[in-house]
Design brief:
Seven copies of one chain form a homoheptamer.
Chain A: H1 6-9, E1 15-20, E2 25-33, E3 39-47, E4 52-60, E5 65-70
Antiparallel strand pairs in A: 1-2, 1-5, 2-3, 3-4
Chain lengths: ~70, ~70, ~70, ~70, ~70, ~70, ~70
């Protein structure tokens, strides 16, 4: 039986795009996640309607997330 | 006794439309779900009032969801 | 002793109107509900201030709901 | 020792006014309540800044409620 | 060791002012409270930027509350 | 091992400034706190963009709080 | 197996930037965190679109946080 969080398990050390509730998007390399969908991303970059900022390593709190998509 | 989540059980590997609280809609093939209604969708596409974007595989966090409807 | 969710128990296979927090309303035939007030509706139709759309079968997430009223 | 929910216990089968977070108000006869302050109201009527609509029997989800006041 | 809810314990049968998240304020005599900070107020009166309305007895749901202050 | 709530433990009977989600700020003397970060403040004063009001003793519900800072 | 909160563990006594849901940003030295991602920061400074204010020591409530990034 597969589970939704398997999408994250198979994206370990790969680049993902995260859509936030604020409308911003964060791209980064997925290093770790937990059951709250808190994420550790490396080489992260956040982009909103106005600009794009390099953040490096981030802990992203799961309750801000709409969806996570592995980069194609 | 039937339960609401049976709607998802019977939609396995089928196309569903998801309405989000933000007003956006996501269409995709349902691969997995859990008790929080987190969803794993394949071949997903998100559409808001402005545009339509192909996302591929996504993990959608359940707390963003208004409703899920299997494609007719 | 009666409980609020008895309103749903007595509406099984009957038409209900659901008011959502977004201001939209959904009408449909109630097939199942759970303790989170997640609903399975058949022949559902959603209506907001702008238009009315047929959805067919839907799983409606309980945390979007203001009230549920059996059709008179 | 009295508890806040005793206000509801003493309003059984009596008319109450409910103020919602949306700003709307619902009047109806209180038939049942639970620990989440979900309410079953009969002969309910909802009124917002624009109009007043008869709803009949309703299940009102507790998390929408600001306050409940027995009709004087 | 004192606890924040002692402010309510020492205000039993006394007048309190409650600030709500909506910006409205409710004044009333505190009859009972519970661990969710649900309140039973008597002789309550609600005031927002537009008007002031007498409510009498009310059950106020704790999650709407910003702060509670005993009347000086 | 230190914990975030130690900031409150070391501010007992001292003046703190609290930033609320609404944008308002409350200053007062910290008398007690609990694990929800509910606060009992004495000699409290609330200030928003429009005015400053003395409140005296208050119970502040933790879920309204952004941050708490001991007065320097 | 690594976990997202390891980002915080490795930032002890180091400077971090915190993005809040309100759009404000707080910079400070991380002294402690807990499982709710409540943070104790020293030498904190908050910056929103209008101005920048020194706060000194703060307890930041975790539910306001979007992301935390160690300063590069």
């Amino acid at each position: 039986m597969q589970r939704p969080l398997d999408v994250l398990g198979s994206s370990h050390d790969k680049k993902v795009i995260v859509h936030l509730k604020s409308g911003a998007k964060i791209a980064g390399t997925l290093r770790a996640f937990d059951s709250h969908i808190n994420l550790w991303l490396d080489d992260a970059e956040i982009e909103d309607s106005e600009n794009k900022v390099k953040l490096g390593k981030v802990l992203l709190r799961g309750d801000n997330i709409v969806l996570i998509s592995p980069e194609k």
